[in-house]
Write a structure and sequence with these properties.
Elements lengths: L2 E7 L2 E6 L4 E5 L4 H4 L3 H4 L3 E2 L3 E4 L4 E4 L12 H8 L5 H8 L3 H8 L7 H19 L4
Antiparallel strand pairs: 1-2, 2-3, 4-5, 5-6
Helix pairs in contact: 4-5
Length: 135
């Protein structure tokens, strides 16, 4: 399968395939594209494996359009929607390896209910600390 054309709609990139399908992915996975303007988004090239935005330093493989979760869910959606949260520092605070938390965020691994609760508890604590900030 090869993507032959793309377009952007809202927070999605939609690819038309050479076999007549339309596949999409959330731009939450690609923050450089999500925050790019139309001229930056339209400055891309295709090669045998994917789509490249040289000026944005972004690449999307054709095969990624067929991944099972085109829209991030759960913890992944939260963290991808809030890039201002430093994942490395949060992982230290949780007592978890940064690589494991990143794997959860990117959908490469799925946390158990217990792990999810640990992460959410620390996020709630952080939220309470932010709410109590005075200056």
């Amino acid at each position: 399968m090869t993507i032959v054309s793309i377009r952007f709609e809202g927070d999605r990139i939609i690819g038309a395939t050479d076999d007549g399908r339309e596949l999409w992915q959330s731009l939450l996975y690609y923050p450089r594209l999500r925050y790019a303007d139309d001229s930056q988004r339209n400055d891309y090239t295709f090669d045998a494996f994917g789509i490249h935005w040289n000026k944005l330093d972004e690449d999307i493989s054709f095969e990624s359009f067929e991944y099972p979760h085109p829209e991030p869910e759960g913890l992944a959606r939260f963290f991808l929607s809030h890039p201002e949260i430093n994942v490395s520092a949060l992982a230290r605070r949780i007592g978890m390896k940064q690589s494991l938390l990143s794997a959860y965020i990117n959908g490469l691994k799925h946390p158990s209910e217990e792990q999810t609760q640990r992460i959410v508890t620390v996020l709630h604590e952080l939220g309470q600390e932010l709410l109590s900030a005075h200056y």
